[in-house]
Design a protein that fits this description.
By secondary structure, this protein is mostly beta strands. The protein has helices at residues 30-43, 92-105, 178-181; strands at residues 12-13, 20-26, 47-53, 56-68, 76-80, 83-86, 111-117, 124-127, 140-146, 149-155, 161-166, 170-175, 182-186, 196-202, 210-211. Mean pLDDT is 88; it is low at 212-218.
């Protein structure tokens, strides 16, 4: 039996030490995850991401969006990799998926970073999600759609690597001290030509959310 072919009875902590990364398997049937892939692909205002590298702004091939709770529909500002982003409101699908993920993981989230990788040639380099604006040791829930991709963790000190395949419709939750001790990445690969969408639900410290009306680029 393929253990990872469907929702697991109990999530599995794939890390041997210094943190918790729970893999839940597929939390929805393939027909649902295909439906959400299409909806997200077609309805989200995707943009190329930017990062500040050696004082220069570079654009990623991958596209992103950032959704957060808003007040009176006004966007919030959020900074990482030296660049400030502005939130778009949660769409109906995203709210539904947020509820599903909150129920499965028994945690709550107030924002979502969305990534669109057009093919296996696009990935994400080693990093940890330890931005100052994030709630300390808050859970980060990663929901995948579209192409199956490999995802890996590397211990910052021992350099131990743990990897798994992220199936469409699968849920992975990083918790506790994980971000302090482990890096993670989505390795690029020539073996995958199909696109993948990944949603990471997070909790941004409300006090850190900068309420921003002016300065918003449409
Ligand atoms: O695409 C993924 O599975 C992970 C994305 C990620 O690590 C991030 O957005 O911080
Ligand atoms: Fe990350």
């Amino acid at each position: 039996m393929d253990l990872f072919s469907s929702l697991l009875d109990e999530p599995i902590n794939i890390l041997p030490k210094d943190g918790v990364v729970n893999y839940y398997g597929e939390i929805m049937p393939l027909s649902d995850s295909s439906y959400y892939f299409e909806r997200l692909f077609n309805t989200i205002a995707w943009r190329h991401d930017q990062a500040l590298v050696f004082g220069k702004i570079i654009e990623t091939k991958r596209k992103v969006a950032w959704c957060a709770d808003t007040i009176d529909g006004k966007p919030f500002a959020y900074s990482y990799s030296g660049v400030t982003r502005y939130s778009i409101p949660f769409t109906e699908e995203l709210l539904l998926l947020k509820n599903l993920v909150e129920q499965q993981s028994n945690e709550s989230y107030n924002s979502c970073l969305l990534n669109l990788y057009h093919s296996g040639e696009e990935g994400m380099a080693w990093h940890s999600d330890g931005e100052a604006d994030l709630k300390e040791q808050g859970a980060i829930a990663s929901l995948s759609f579209g192409a199956e991709r490999k995802f890996a963790f590397k211990h910052k000190f021992s350099k131990e690597v743990v990897a798994l395949q992220l199936k469409p419709g699968s849920l992975l939750v990083m918790k506790g001290i994980t971000q302090q001790h482990w890096l993670h990445r989505l390795p690029p690969t020539k073996k995958v030509s199909e696109p993948r969408i990944n949603l990471t639900f997070r909790t941004i410290d409300k006090a850190e959310l900068k309420y921003s009306v002016q300065d918003v680029k449409s």
